[in-house]
Amino acid sequence: MDYTISFPIKKATFSIQHEDEIILLGSCFSDEISKKFNHHGFNTFSNPFGTIFHPLMLSSFINNCLQELKKERVLQKENLYLSWDASSTFFEYDEPIFLTKLKNTRQ
Predict the structure, then answer these.
(1) Spatial contact of 61 and 25, defined as CB atoms under 8 Å apart
(2) Strands, DSSP E only, in 6-87?
(3) pTM (whole model) above 0.85
């Protein structure tokens, strides 16, 4: 069986240069592609708040980075501080440090 689909792919109206800064967001696929880009000399930043699959959360993440938040959505679970808007791999043990980390990562 042939599992290929033939269709034309239009050339992009832009090109990526080695000096460009590239952010990759989403699944772990973003992390893997980021490794490939970095290996070939590109400047990439992948999933700063951890792997986020849900498109609405990704949209929220981008919007929150583009505007200054008045209040972070933080929760404390046992001795960890976490964000409702980030992966559970993004945490700290101290709330002021966590809030600074959130602000710096958004910037």
Answers:
(1) yes
(2) 21-24, 43-46, 74-77, 80-83
(3) no
